[in-house]
Each structure stands twice: as C-alpha cells, then as structure tokens.
Design a protein that fits this description.
The protein is α+β, with helices and mostly antiparallel strands. The protein is about 25% helix and about 30% strand. The protein has one domain. The chain is globular, with a radius of gyration of 18 Å.
Length: about 170
C-alpha cells in the first residue's frame, strides 16, 4: 500500500476520514494538544524541524502554523499515530480492515478513560474504541476524538457528579 501524500491526508482530515491510535491520543493529551490542534497543524502548517526524543526515541516534529501569532510557540506532535487513507473509511464493522496492520476483524468496544487529576478529574464512559485482534492496535475515529473534546469543553453542563472510591498504590519495602 502506497503512503498517502500530504494532500490526501489533508482531504482525509477535512472529511474526518481517519483514525488516531490510542497511544497518539494519549500523547496529544499529555502535551495539552487537542485533535483540533493536530488537524490545524496538518492543514495549515509545515514541518520545520524533526527531533528524536532522547528518553523515548520517538521522532517529534515541530511545525510552523501560518495563522499563529508571533508570541505563540510552535506546536510539537508525535510523528506516528495518525492513520489516513484516501481509499478506506474508518472502521464501522468487523469486516473492515485494521488501519495499522490491514487485517480484517477489527472489534468495537466501549472503554472508560479519565482526563485530568484531582478537582479537574473528568471520567468519560462508553467511549467507542476500535481494536485489532491481530496486531493489538487500538484507535479512535476522528468523530470520537472530536466528541471527547466537546465533552471536555462542556464538562460542567454534561457531566454528572458521582462519588467514587480512590485508592493510593503503596509498596511496602522489606
């Protein structure tokens, strides 16, 4: 399978026809970037520098976004994790192919994820996540990531407060 060109990737983003690995979604969250930030970088920016993370060995790319102000720092993004193909839609049934390994049989499952900590903790339940039984890759569709961002932005009006037990992990040293 040929690698998509930047124009094909941009068309996939405009039509929300792509998936993002769970690892890449977690990296975005760790870097305080949203799916809108990633899309904006790809649609309007250009990569000006790539660096290898000395701790993880991941390649990080710094992009220049045309619309940013002169005081705003360039955003960095993990080079891997976005899968866009112009020929196939994100999976909607188990007969469709995995975006990572290309094998059929992806499975949809619902997961619970937490965002933030302490008083800013938000738990979102029943998030649809596609998982491949062959390679183990799990990924969200573009639509799912946009809905997660919407829920996070509207947390006060859409979330219901519930008391939950929280335990602290402790290791005894003998």
């Amino acid at each position: 399978m040929a690698k998509p060109t930047i124009s094909q990737i941009r068309e996939c983003i405009r039509s929300l026809n792509y998936v993002v690995s769970i690892h890449a979604a977690e990296e975005l969250d760790d870097d305080n970037l949203t799916i809108d930030d990633l899309e904006n970088i790809i649609l309007t920016g250009k990569i000006i520098e790539c660096q290898r993370d000395t701790r993880t060995q991941e390649i990080k790319c710094v992009s220049s976004v045309a619309s940013r102000s002169k005081n705003e720092m360039p955003k960095s993004s993990s080079k891997s994790g976005l899968s866009a193909t112009s020929s196939s839609l994100p999976p909607t049934s188990p007969s469709q192919l995995c975006a990572s390994c290309g094998q059929p049989g992806v499975r949809l499952r619902n997961v619970t994820r937490s965002f933030g900590r302490g008083p800013l903790l938000l738990v979102i339940e029943d998030i649809p996540l596609w998982t491949c039984p062959h390679c183990g890759e799990s990924y969200f569709t573009a639509q799912t990531l946009h809905e997660i961002e919407r829920i996070k932005a509207l947390r006060k009006s859409v979330a219901v407060e519930r008391p939950i037990p929280v335990a602290m992990f402790q290791v005894s040293c003998n």
